[in-house]
Amino acid sequence: MAYAFGASSESIIHELVFSSSTSWVPPYSCRAYVTVIGPGGSGGSCVEGGDHEAYVASGGGAGGCAKSLLRLDSSVTYTINIGAGGASVNNAAGNAGGANSEFQGSDIDNMAGNLGSGGLKEGNAGTISLKAGGAGGTATGGTIFNCTGGAGGSGEVVTYSNAGIHIASGGGGVAGIFGKSYRGGNAICNTGGAGKVALGGGAGVGGNGGDATSTGSYGFAGAGGGNAFGDGISHTTVYPNQGNMFDTSSLIRSISCNDWDEAGFSAYEQTSV
């Protein structure tokens, strides 16, 4: 992604967004803020195949971001290359972004937002060591800043119990469009017990994704995403077997889990709070 803000005077009068590769000639010579954002990698995907298993997927890394204040000349043709984001996957490790994004011209220092890496995945009947999220891409050529993209969140199953399923999924990172990037939330199932789920939050432009930690049996930990003003809310659950799946203080209804189906998300009994 490339942005150009330009004017023939000192005020910003145009904002242009280029979402595909092209050649571009400014309609007039101007000063312009140019932001180049590299493509992010896709997150890993791990498909549940049965009971008594553990599944982990980590988030994709964001692309790098470069920003400059440039003098653009109406007699120069500028080349804009836009890299595609990493293709989504099904039961596979994530893909890196397709190519770097670039803004080039004969009269400027070329700018590049480099691609982010894809997340990882693993599924088996046992513990799963930490699967790091995809690394963020670097950036070059910016005169205001060059910001490496936020890393994807990790996933990990520290302790495995041969009962139910254990799921840990990290959130995606975010590009540093304001000069600082943020990571995706990490997810961990860190004690024994049946039927645990931990879902890290995605990063926002002003904060990290929240971290999720699931402990005990039938604990569902879903963290919040980052936003423009701060980190997402992290969440830890500690529930014994036959306990409540959600924090009843913040929900109108809770689910009392006597058993879970093979997908690990549906309870057979519901009771009012």
From TrEMBL:
Residues 21-227 form the Glycine-rich domain. This is Glycine-rich domain-containing protein. It comes from marine metagenome.
